[in-house]
Specification:
This protein is an alpha+beta fold. The protein is built from eleven helices and 16 strands. About 30% of the residues lie in helices and about 20% in strands. The protein is elongated, with a radius of gyration of 23 Å.
């Protein structure tokens, strides 16, 4: 088992505990930091930045101060997911068809939304199905029609809401104009033949069941709608900062208590150093009190390092899961960095009312550097200016950028078929292949 690098204020000791050490200050990056904070009139005592130098030692300011993470939390939700599920994990939604009855066995697929459900109905029509008397589903069917779009509040998901959603999808004659238009958009954007131009379906009864009614029936027809590998889901989640997907993955793995146990067992971390209330980074209200995910800059360096290690052990790179500024859009569409920084670092942004954060990893001439800039301020635009300047300062201190071989891969289902996002040109699709 690989130990942490000797980073900031913490050094891992056989992953059973962390020992406090003294962080080293860097004159040049500290100078930039202080100048930028003064220029933006941001109070220095509430801010933190850190990075690892060419020797793997931490540099920075306020490394052991607890800071709000906001959506940078998604990097650690990703770490937990790849360690618990694996980068190639697939969500297989199973359909059991017996006569005029359908049972849907869910897999907690976090991208089971409009695109995937429209595709499912189109595929069933292709196979000759147009009506079911009864559709049953289990507790692992998690459908959120608007999953492709950002959500700030986790939707109510229970047997009633899932039943209503399924009934809406499978009764095409009662589709709203918006549903019809969105289906047409998918049809027009997809490769010819991917979606049927029109679909027709009808269902009478929809209900949740505790167990598969056809589990022991050898005559039942079984179809599978598979997802791409988990790393593609996490990549899209991080690029777009999709809160619903992050929270769904977090809950699938066990939620707050299990994540705290994971941090304790795997890394020897305590609630004094890091504590999560959500997988997305959105605040949670408990007994009327707002609670935000927090950690220290130093702990974040360690855990982002472990994210890179864990991904590489499974045959992928950190670029496969985290946004690459200059190539990937998403939350970096309006962030400007020097042109030669393109394809030389990965990062995740975070923004709340009083928090702006940026963290990730740089590929530099002096080696890989993990970094974080955490601004606790209501001046979001000023904080982003500080963060951009610190990325440049750290990269310069580390000898300048070193590009890695990266191209926007997206996802190509069915032998090269692609489906573009409505927000921007993208090859991501939550569909692995046809219904089989």
């Amino acid at each position: 088992m690989k130990l942490f690098s000797p980073l900031n204020i913490f050094v891992a000791l056989n992953f059973t505990g962390l020992i406090c050490t003294q962080a080293i200050a860097n004159d040049q990056t500290d100078k930039t930091w202080n100048q930028q904070l003064r220029a933006q009139a941001i109070v220095a005592k509430d801010q933190s930045y850190c990075y690892t130098d060419e020797k793997g030692k931490a540099q920075g300011s306020n490394l052991d101060m607890r800071i709000r993470l906001a959506s940078v939390s998604k990097l650690l939700t990703s770490l937990w997911a790849v360690e618990k599920l694996g980068v190639d994990h697939k969500y297989d939604t199973k359909l059991f068809i017996k006569g005029s009855n359908l049972h849907i066995q869910g897999s907690y697929d976090p991208y089971l939304g409009n695109e995937k459900m429209f595709f499912l109905i189109s595929q069933l029509n292709e196979l000759g199905y147009e009506k079911f008397d009864t559709i049953t589903f289990d507790k692992n069917v998690i459908i959120y029609p608007d999953v492709a779009y950002e959500a700030d509040e986790y939707p109510t998901i229970n047997s009633v809401t899932m039943g209503r959603v399924l009934r809406n999808y499978f009764n095409t004659k009662t589709w709203t104009p918006d549903s019809k238009n969105e289906y047409s958009n998918f049809y027009n954007l997809a490769k010819t033949g991917k979606f049927r131009k029109t679909v027709n379906f009808e269902v009478q009864n929809v209900k949740k069941v505790e167990s598969n009614p056809f589990a022991d029936d050898d005559s039942v027809k079984v179809l599978t709608l598979s997802s791409p590998g988990l790393y593609k889901y996490l990549k899209q989640m991080n690029v777009k900062s999709n809160n619903f997907v992050a929270e769904t993955v977090f809950r699938q793995n066990g939620g707050v208590a299990n994540f705290s146990q994971f941090l304790s067992d795997r890394f020897g971390l305590t609630a004094d150093q890091i504590l999560f209330y959500s997988g997305s980074g959105l605040p949670t209200v408990i007994d009327g009190v707002r609670k935000d995910n927090y950690a220290t800059c130093g702990v974040m360096l360690d855990l982002i390092s472990e994210l890179k290690n864990s991904i590489e052990k499974q045959g992928k790179t950190i670029e496969d899961l985290v946004a690459v500024p200059g190539s990937d859009g998403g939350t970096f569409r309006n962030r400007v960095f020097p042109s030669d920084f393109k394809n030389s670092f990965v990062a995740k942004t975070g923004t709340l009312m009083h928090t702006s954060t940026l963290a990730g990893a740089m590929n530099t001439q002096n080696g890989f550097s993990f970094f974080g800039v955490f601004n606790q301020s209501t001046d979001i635009s000023g904080s982003k200016i500080v963060q951009n300047a610190m990325v440049k300062s750290i990269m310069t201190e580390m000898g300048g950028p070193k590009t890695f071989n990266y191209e926007v891969e997206g996802f190509h289902p069915d032998n090269g078929d692609t489906l573009k996002s409505f927000e921007e040109v993208s090859d991501f699709s939550p569909i692995e292949e046809g219904l089989f």
